[in-house]
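job 3f2a | input accepted
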Amino acid sequence: MKILNLYCGIGGNRKSWGDDHDITAIEYKQEIADIYKDFFPNDEVIVTDAHQYLLEHYKEYDFIWSSPPCPSHSRMNFLHNTKELKMKYPDMKLYEEILFLTHYFKGKWCVENVRSFYKPLIPPYEIQAHYFWSNFIIRDVEIERARITNAKGQNLDVKMKANGFIIKDFHGYKKDKRTLLNNCVEPELGLHILECALGLNKQKILF
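job 3f2a | predicted structure (207 res):
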C-alpha cells in the first residue's frame, strides 16, 4: 500500500510495519524528522505542516495514519492545570481531520489521540491510554507498556529497549528524549492497527 504517516515523530507506530509498503512520513520539526529518517531510510520524509499536507495530498494514498498533537485535549494536561498555566482552546484540528477523512477519503484511515478530559465529540475505539477513530473495525488488544517516570533518566533505557529506539546522543538531540519516547505509539499497537486495516486480525490478539 501507499501509506501516509502524519505527525510521524520518531516513528513509534511505524516501527513494526516492515518495508513492504511505500511510506511517506510528515513531521514539522527537522531535528525529529532526521531521527525518523535514520531509523526508516526507505521512507520518504517530508518536513512540513501535516494538517495542510493531508488536505492537499490525501488522494495519493491507500492508508492514512494521523496522530495530531494532543496536549489541549489530554486528561493529564487538564488535571495538572495551575494558575500559572496559560489557558487555550482545545485544538480542533483533531476533529477536522476525523470529519475530513470520514467524508472525503476513499481508503482506510486511522486517527490516534490520547484520552481526553471530556467525553469525545465523536465516539472512538479505546485501547489503553489511546483513542482511535477509523473507518474499519479495530479489535481489542493488550500491549505491555514500558512507562517513563519523571525522574531524570529513570527508566529511559527500559523504554528505549522496549520500543526498539536507542536515541542517546542521536543526531546531537539535546532535548528531553523521554518526551520523544512518550509521544510514540507502542510499535506492537501500531502493527495491530495496520493489520486490522488490512483485515488480518480476525480474533482478539494478546501480545
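job 3f2a | The chain has seven helices and nine strands.
job 3f2a | closed
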